[in-house]
Amino acid sequence: MTYNITRRDFLNGMAIATGTGLLTPAELFAQTSTSGQGVVYPPTLTGLRGNHPGSFETMHALAWAGQKPEAHHKLDEHYDMVIVGAGVSGLATAWFYQKAMGPEARILLLDNHDDFGGHAKRNEFHHRGRTLLGIGGSVNVDAPSDWSDISKGLLDDLGVDLEAMKANSENVALLSATADSVLAFPGVDGKEGYTSHKKIRAKWRQLMLGVGDYASAVRALPLPVSEQDKLIEFFSGDRDYLNDLSQSEKQSYVESVSYAEFLTERVGLALDTISIFYPVPKLMFGPAGLRVTVMEAFYLGCPGVQGMDWLAKLAAGILEGQETGSESLYFPDGNASLARLLVHKLIPRAASDASGFDDIATSRFDYGALDEKAHSIRLRLNSTVVGVRETEDDAVTVDYVRDGNAVSVTGDHCVLACYNSAIPYLCPQLPESQKEALRYGVKVPLVWTNVLIDNGHAFSKLGGGQVICPDDPYVMVTTPPVTTTGGHQPPRGPDDPMVIHMLGVPSVTSTGTETSRELLSTARHNVYATTFDTYESQVRGQLQGLLGDHGFNHKFDIKAITVNRWPHGYAYEYMSLDDPKWTPGQAPHELGRAQFGRISIANSDSEAYAYLNAAIDAGWRAVTEQVTYNDLQG
Ligand SMILES: Cc1cc2nc3c(=O)[nH]c(=O)nc-3n(C[C@H](O)[C@H](O)[C@H](O)COP(=O)(O)OP(=O)(O)OC[C@H]3O[C@@H](n4cnc5c(N)ncnc54)[C@H](O)[C@@H]3O)c2cc1C
């Protein structure tokens, strides 16, 4: 690329645009130092983040080529509990274990990334005297009123004030069904080869369910009139497209046929047209969103249900949900603030100036204080675990690689709060059936990119907080949550710099015969194989196409790009088309998470549910197993 966006370079990855867009040295320094000493501050790194270079190579050598160090130097470190993975599940495990065993309990957390939080990470930018936050992975606290008492209790322990979060947020366009959105399609070739987009602003999710003037909106879509006619009839809800089927056949149809087949064969829409219905399924299931059944699509708020009287109750529920909006609460940096609150609670010295919930988003963390010998809880980053086994002296040995050094520590207990698919490699001694169960789910790959923009004029002229781009690399373009939670000051107006948040779902070529898991696997490899240059070029092309009409010039206005790629993203959730209905207790995640003596398994994969509360509940279960085991051993 010619625009000289640097990645993890000697300036620690701060992106610099050429021409008039150059950032000053002071701004650069603000992004890359702790306490002004020039130490790398991981949240400010740009370029390829998420599963960043340096985080996965050791594990891939083990998983793909069976390679691991022949010997490990035994460190003189023994812990009560060693936790593999410092995502929300690992951090919650540490908190629950400390609560159960007391403040003296010695706990070590190991994580292969250079930052803590797992998917719950943030991107931090400093520009023109302002601090801007971006969501690096996990987005929102979803429906906390439905959480278990354990998960709700953790929020209480952390002092999370859900009412304040509600009150502090405004215009949260992310995934909102009621906000105005802009549906955008690449169209005419614009200046310098960028494709100018046709944009139609409306309350699209409601219009698609037949609420409002959907006919005018549809007529504005860049589609042949015959397709528009079909869409208008479809949105009207006047027709039951399954009326030739008996009641039981209809029921079985919606549960066993893909939404794509329904749209093309029953509604008669062209393949090119139906992409407008897939942004949400793709954001929920990644490339496997193409495999949702009619029923799964309806539950995600996709249209079609309103024409089917026999599903009227469900339709009413969906419409009501669209109007009231499900309870979705946001920190300005997504769930990174939750991870920060956990680390602050576990290792107060790491954020000694922070008081907690009220200033967590603006607090500076001292990464050097995470792993101090004097502290009972230590968090060690850049450490990839390659082996975990029980030993004869009633302990667990944990082998890991850090900075190219193969070392090991021991613990009385170990919780694997990492990825299910990694566990068979870490613990080859597990029964074959358990390893097979652990390998079943394939995590959903996603790419969330944050782009620092010099000012918000062009974006505000676009006029919708949520831009849906069915045919672009990023299916949704929006802003981070506008909220003051955690002490954050969001941009005050279009003169201020802003962050554009771009949500991408890796595309895969499908013949239509692949299962969800096959699609996810292929997409994961595609994500690893995609270079920063490619992502950069996609970002520039898409933003120029969307904003070029409004005075935006990517060459000058883009100040930094951070690509958070998550080849191992959401935990796999079973899908009706491709997964059997398991009998209770026999689903792969349940068989896979069986305790193995002093080793237990946490993480959201072990619940087959890609949400915070699953990660927390899993941590609680793992701690309970080990504390009980302790008691049984006397
Ligand atoms: C892009 C994205 C958006 C999301 N949005 C939401 C949302 O809005 N709301 C929500 O509730 N959930 C969301 N999630 C789901 C999220 O995964 C869970 O909420 C939760 O954060 C998962 O926590 P975890 O600790 O189980 O897993 P992770 O966050 O994946 O943490 C596991 C950690 O273990 C590390 N690890 C793996 N192998 C090893 C090894 N061998 N050695 C050392 N460390 C290892 C991993 O690298 C990682 O850091 C999102 C996920 C993604 C990817």
Q: What characteristics describe this protein?
A:
alpha/beta; 8-stranded mixed β-sheet; disordered N terminus; 634 residues; FAD/NAD(P)-binding domain; binds flavin-adenine dinucleotide
Topology:
Elements: H1 25-32, E1 47-50, H2 57-65, E2 73-84, H3 88-101, E3 107-110, E4 122-127, E5 130-135, E6 141-142, H4 149-157, H5 162-168, E7 181-189, E8 195-202, H6 204-207, H7 214-219, H8 225-236, H9 247-256, H10 259-266, H11 271-274, H12 279-285, H13 294-299, H14 312-324, E9 328-329, E10 332-335, H15 336-346, E11 377-380, E12 383-391, E13 395-402, E14 405-416, H16 423-426, H17 432-440, E15 444-453, H18 457-462, E16 466-468, E17 474-478, E18 498-504, H19 516-529, H20 532-547, H21 554-557, E19 558-570, H22 588-592, E20 599-601, H23 612-633
Parallel strand pairs: 1-19, 2-3, 2-14, 3-11, 7-16, 14-20
Antiparallel strand pairs: 4-5, 6-9, 7-8, 12-13, 13-14, 15-18, 15-19, 16-17, 17-18
Helix pairs in contact: 3-15, 3-23, 4-23
The structure holds flavin-adenine dinucleotide.
Cα separation of the termini:
63 Å
The main β sheet shows up as: 8 strands, mixed
Q: CATH topology of the domain at 71-116 and 381-439 and 574-633, what is it called? A: FAD/NAD(P)-binding domain
Are any ligands bound, and if so which?
flavin-adenine dinucleotide
- Order of the strands making up the biggest sheet: 1-19-15-18-17-16-7-8
- Count of separate DSSP helical elements: 23
Quote the average pLDDT.
Answer: 90
Low-pLDDT residue spans: 1-37
- CATH structural class of the domain at 71-116 and 381-439 and 574-633: Alpha Beta
